[in-house]
Amino acid sequence: MTGTKTNVKEIGLYINGEYLNSSDNATFEAKNPATQEVITRVSEATNEDVDRACQTARESFENGPWRTMTVEERSVKLRRMAEIILERKEEIAHYDAMDVGKPYEATVGHEVARAANNIKFFADFVEKQGGETYPMGEEYINYTRYEPVGVAAIITPWNVPFMLTTWKLGPCLAAGNTAVIKPAENTPLSVSLLGEIAKEAGIPDGVVNIVQGQGGTVGTALTTHPEVDLVSFTGSTATGKHILKGGADTLKEVSFELGGKAANIIFEDANIDKAVPSSIRAAFMNSGQVCLAGSRILVQRSVLDEFLEKFKKAAMDLKVGDPQEKGTNMGPLVSKEHHHKVKSYLEIAKEEGAELIYGGGRPDLPEYLSNGYYLEPTIYVHDNPKARICQEEIFGPVVTILPFDTEEEALDIANDTDYGLNGVVWTENLQRAHRISHAVRAGTIWVNCWFVRDLRVPFGGFKKSGIGREGGHHSLEFFTEAKNVCIALQ
Ligand SMILES: NC(=O)C1=CN([C@@H]2O[C@H](COP(=O)(O)OP(=O)(O)OC[C@H]3O[C@@H](n4cnc5c(N)ncnc54)[C@H](O)[C@@H]3O)[C@@H](O)[C@H]2O)C=CC1
Ligand SMILES: O=C(O)/C=C/C=C(\O)C(=O)O
């Protein structure tokens, strides 16, 4: 038996280089979703604590050495931070396995490495940036500087806590800003380590601050705070709207990566043997709690039977179980509330007349996981793209297969959504691959692959899937103010 293996010490807020209790000593529980065991207690920030974190970040931005250091000096410290993340990869992955329910094996091997690279990539990238120069004849010359904006609020979700926080923190710090981070209340553990990691890397106190607690209170206090200039957020579209409204009075700049309902389109000329394992990953990785999930699989009718047979078999082969155990492909859902929400879609699917192909129940698990928030990988076939299970972000291991006959029909279904984060196309026809990639209204299209990430490319959503883009110079544009300097030459 594994389950919760480590005693995790109580988690404080991290402000000005110190872990602290909240001003009223209030705490909340961090729980293991595989067992419901309490892992530890976490300080719940008050408004006073959020204010302190924001004032500290402001003071450190205005008067600390971080903003005025050379880019190279900052990058040395950030590269060290990336190294420390790798040195502590087992601990970080173990924390995410415990409070997200993420399989340890995949997290330690992939997600933590990506987190380290998020920091290293921007440390290297920022050193290579130049600016624009515009001479005006012999009389004047203009040149552009990219200066840090100020204090950034970094609000991250529970599905990929550590990796997604570093994805924002890397460019934020590389550009010379200071940060107040708020991880999701469901998953406070791994992000809390970023305070001590930043300190060990030599990043001055006050540059990285972490507050913990509920979105509605702590998140709101942070994203409406007058000292916060920027909000970088990944999470639900509903929360994105709250943050946008709350930031209006102080004109905060926002970068939002929101929900998705990606179409994964399998044409009859696709290599089905490649499409099946990739579509399984896209549907069930992290128990389907992925904004980029291929949660609608559109399959051309002539290959429907073949695809269904192979896809179902591959889903049945997934090992659902203890996230800490070697070989586990799928852990539990993150929380009781989320488990309830995802299961409610099984009722909705029944009412909507979807055909259940596999799953929908509780997997067979050892006794010590009997309280865990588990659900089998679940597959439906439905012919109504307007059904709620085809329109709403379920964010669980529930996938719907929609048959289609023609390319036009596939495109209509793919674009019939409020979301536009990503899409996937499986075809061996080059012209069709381009045609469909151009016609699907989404920020990323993967052709004959899924979730392949190059950190230089723009990443973000069309429609209700986001505002702005992250990645490479897109992230740096968000985290900097462009300044023009015009000089008289005569
Ligand atoms: N990456 C993604 O696309 C994600 C999508 N979701 C979607 O959202 C649904 C609901 O999940 P939730 O946990 O409720 O996500 P959420 O959007 O409420 O949580 C994400 C983060 O926002 C914070 N937050 C919540 N309300 C806030 C507010 N008013 N002001 C500032 N920060 C706030 C939370 O504390 C958390 O840190 C999921 O079922 C899923 O469909 C959730 C998490 C990530
Ligand atoms: O690869 C990225 O930069 C972002 C990935 C985001 C998710 O996996 C998510 O929000 O679910």
From TrEMBL:
Keyword vocabulary terms for this entry: NAD, Oxidoreductase
* Superkingdom assignment: Bacteria
Q: The Aldehyde dehydrogenase domain covers which part of the protein?
A: 22-485
Molecular function (Gene Ontology), one example: oxidoreductase activity, acting on the aldehyde or oxo group of donors, NAD or NADP as acceptor
Entry annotation: catalytic residues: 257
PANTHER family recorded: 2-AMINOMUCONIC SEMIALDEHYDE DEHYDROGENASE
Family the entry assigns: Belongs to the aldehyde dehydrogenase family.
- The name on file for this protein is Aldehyde dehydrogenase family protein
